[in-house]
């Protein structure tokens, strides 16, 4: 049994480790119903001091403002606890939403897990 307090996931989320980071792999349609299911898992992962988190959106088919709130929530919780948050995203429409809202500036998306880990840490500014 693992000592990791992060729950294993839901139908919208798979949690796993990659190169010393906790990866939250979101899947499917990320809307308000999905967000309600994801929040407890996101909070468990981002609530630890110094947490090193990657949010992977490559398997997301739909992403609305509920998804943006999840990303902003994760970012704020990680920054408040001196952690690190990286983002993986390749879907053109989701990338567009991230750019239009300014979140891509604060949480630069990378095309893969390894590329995300190679990026310098995201800025700590506000939108």
Q: Which class in CATH terms?
A: Alpha Beta
Biggest pleated-sheet summary: 6 strands, mixed
CATH H-tier superfamily: STAS domain
Kindly provide the radius of gyration, computed on alpha-carbon positions and rounded to a whole number of angstroms: 13 Å
Low-confidence stretches: 1-6
Encode the helix/strand succession as letters. EEEHEHEHHEH
Number of helices: 5
CATH topology: Transcription Regulator spoIIAA
**Would you count the extended β strands for me?**
6
The rough form would be described as: globular
Whole-number tally of structural domains: 1
The level of helicity is 40-55%
State the main characteristics.
single chain, 127 residues, alpha/beta, Transcription Regulator spoIIAA, 6-stranded mixed beta sheet, 5 helices, 29% strand, globular, disordered N terminus
Task: Tell me about this structure.
With 127 residues, this protein is α/β, with parallel strands linked by helices. It has a single domain (9-108), classed as Transcription Regulator spoIIAA (2-Layer Sandwich). The protein is 40% helix and 29% strand. The protein contains 5 helices and 6 strands. The chain has helices at residues 32-46, 65-80, 92-101, 103-106, 113-118; strands spanning 9-10, 13-18, 21-30, 52-63, 84-88, 109-110. It has a 6-stranded mixed sheet. Helix 2 links the parallel strand 4 and strand 5. Helix 1 (32-46) runs parallel beside helix 2 (65-80). The chain is globular and about 30 Å long. Residues 1-6 have low confidence and may be disordered.
């Amino acid at each position: 049994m693992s000592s990791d307090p992060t729950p294993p996931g839901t139908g919208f989320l798979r949690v796993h480790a990659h190169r010393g980071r906790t990866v939250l792999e979101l899947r499917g349609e990320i809307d308000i119903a999905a967000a309600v299911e994801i929040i407890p898992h996101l909070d468990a992962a981002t609530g630890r001091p110094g947490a090193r988190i990657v949010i992977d959106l490559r398997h997301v088919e739909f992403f609305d403002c509920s998804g943006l709130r999840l990303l902003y929530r994760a970012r704020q919780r990680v920054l408040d606890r001196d952690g690190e948050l990286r983002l993986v995203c390749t879907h053109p429409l989701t990338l567009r939403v991230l750019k239009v809202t300014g979140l891509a500036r604060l949480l630069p998306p990378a095309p893969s897990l390894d590329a995300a880990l190679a990026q310098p840490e995201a800025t700590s500014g506000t939108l």
